[in-house]
Structure formats: C-alpha cells, structure tokens
Amino acid sequence: MTTAIFSDGRPMAEAEFLAIGETPERIELFDGSLHVTPAATPLHQLVSRRLANTMDAGAEAAGLLVLEAVNVRINPSRIPIPDLVISSVINLEELVIDASAIRLVCEIISPSNASTDRVLKMHYYAAGRIPWYLLVDPSARTLQLFRLVGDTYVEEFVAKDGDVLHLSKPVVATIDLAELLPRV
Prior knowledge:
3-stranded antiparallel β-sheet, 13 strands, 184 residues, alpha+beta
C-alpha cells in the first residue's frame, strides 16, 4: 500500500495521511510531504525505553502519560512522530494526539536525522506551543533541555557525560546520563 502513495506527487492532506494506517515504516507528515525513515537502531530504542521508564513515576504522580513514537498533530499538514512525549490524559484509542495535549517532547538523535531533530522538528514543536523539548544525543553523550519562550526554544540545561538532570516540570524526574546511555 505504501508504494502507491508516493506516486501521486501532490501535497497530502491529513485525512489521506491517516488513511495510510499502520505500516512497518515510520511515516511522518511534513507540510504535506511524507518523511519516511527506517526503524530506529537498537541503541536508539534502548535509550527511549530507559528514558520512558525514568519518567513514568513522575508522570503518573502528575496525572500525565509517557508515550513513545506517537503521531502528534502540530497542524493538519504537520504530524511528526517524536521518540517520546509526556502528555495530558488523552483518548488512547485515537491515532493522533493534538500538540495542545503535549507537555514535553523528546527526540533521540541518530546520525541520519540530526538536522531534522535539531532544526526542523524543533521549529515544528515550537510552532505547536509544546512547552518543553528534550534532545538526547547518544553519540555525543549529551542531553539538552529547552523551554519554550515566546515562539522559540531557549536552552534551559545541558548535561554531558556524568551529569544528572533534575526535572521539576512537567514531571519530577532525575535523569542520570550514565544510566541512560550505555557504553557502546
């Protein structure tokens, strides 16, 4: 089914995008165009799971949810799939979560998507008014936390190998970079 969608050449509407349904590919909608990436590396998935586990208790205590790899509607032509989000309570049966429900969005940088996460998605998430953006770079062994101020993100905290991030918003959590990022 996915081969047919690439042959049309016109911008894709949200309804058409959602009609694709579940696929083995990771397909995101960027300004009416499809952005397709292969499955993430095992390292990427391990970091995502560890981060979700670290934030779970704080999210539950705050009445929030930690979700991995979900469709987030910034607007009808922008539906990225962040690696991890913290959201308000939502309908778990819905295919897309509106950005207004997202309190924190996280991207884990892979060498193949670094510019997308650092520039394009950061811009999209800011446009969606998502208050917090967490960027994890396993290769550089860093973590950056950004806070939305006006319509742009400003760096709130940078953790380097050996550092610990103590989150107080939107959840209370302690992220120890040494525990989050395995030595490879």
